[in-house]
Design goal:
By secondary structure, the chain is mainly alpha-helical. The protein is about 60% helix and about 0% strand. The longest helix has 16 residues, at about 40-55.
Length: about 80
């Protein structure tokens, strides 16, 4: 089962100074292909999901814990 650790979510939160889905999408793109950190599979899942959330005008989370909950609800449903 896929899971994004809280440490990775906190890192994404800190690296995304403008808290919005489009800014998070850009931060995720910077993580793709890196040897360390979030796996490319999880990055791909989150890239797809952040695009869906932005397109649906979903409110961006207020804190890292909410982002953690949202991202893990999605990736845990993935095969």
């Amino acid at each position: 089962m896929a899971h994004v650790p809280m440490g990775d979510i906190q890192e994404l939160w800190n690296q995304t100074p403008t808290h919005s889905w489009s800014a998070l999408h850009k931060t995720l793109q910077q993580h793709k292909g890196k040897a360390q950190g979030i796996s490319d599979t999880l990055v791909d899942y989150m890239l797809q999901y952040t695009q869906q959330l932005e397109n649906s005008n979903q409110k961006y989370p207020d804190n890292p814990q909410q982002l953690y909950d949202i991202m893990n609800q999605y990736v845990e449903k993935r095969p």
